[in-house]
Fold this protein.
Amino acid sequence: MRIDLPGGTYTLRERVSWPVPDGPAASRIVYAAAHVVADPLGDNTPGSPAAVDWDATLRFRRHLWSYGLRVADAMDTAQRNMGLDWAATKELIRRSAAEARDYGDPATLVACGAGTDHAPGAADLDAVTAAYAEQIETVQAAGAGVIVMASRQLARVATGPKDYHQVYGKLLGLAERPVVLHWLGEMFDPQLAGYWGSSDVAAATESFLELIHAHASMVDGVKVSLLDEQHEIGLRAALPEGVRLYTGDDFNYPSLIRTGSHALLGIFDAIAPAAAAALQVLDAAEAACDAAGRDRLLAHYDEILAPTVPLSRKIFETPTYHYKTGIVFLAWLNGHQDAFSMVNGAQSARSLTHLAEVFRLADQAGLLADPELAVHRMRALLAVNGL
């Protein structure tokens, strides 16, 4: 099958049929950070309250669970701080946790972001703490796990590491069970520059580790999104026993997961079938009795994920915070939603040439579930743009 794309005619590969696993991976805990599906008939123009297609949004979460992945919801992939307002976020948390009950324990299957984005005017540490506490209570009341997101408001009012420790110490005292702490780099959100009290990454890491060691019993893990493989490896080694490192590195995830990181990744929204297949192979590799068998299986793991890396790097290219557009574009190409539309009008955040390259790379990774549908939809998008 061929399609005329910007830059020339492209011939698609044969369709790949990915196996659906019997259950989640045993060797790693893996979350896919999930996007929300906008209501194509709603007013999702920039600045408007989010209008969400709840049926399609929940159907996509069932798709992720069917591949043995956990769901990280109400995170930056769901357009927190970029269009998903607090009213829609509360509804998303409630609905996602309720939907998870059909598959098991919501606290295991879904973890939701708790932040301070509903209180943009929070002017001091007490106000920030109160805003965080409200969102943590919302997540816990729904029965989901808690991910304490990085806060723009805290980054603005904090004067140093001591302020971060004060706020997070109080929040960890409110948690009913261990939480995930999220360190989101400024490439994902420039307003988070200097998080943990310093613009120097080494100093910020020291502050972060001091907090974790002081409250290790209430920290399930840390989700690190700095796109720095060596930093993550060092941080992983320095964590207290029992605290997991959930990689948020959408550039280097294959090697980081293979060497011991767990995962909480936006790209797994788009590559769930390949990710699930690779994780099953990794399970087999870590259970292998002989070195030759283990090496063969690890090579297969690398073979599955290697073509997904160029796709991920394209989707997450600078400006990285617009990666959600590519994620939703692929969900539309793959039939998970009826329209390529996003809350806050974010479908316009990437160029047509960018999206055409995402199409090519998704096909090369075997991640167009129905090539005929994907070609039909890509041609429609090209036509609307005068091509």
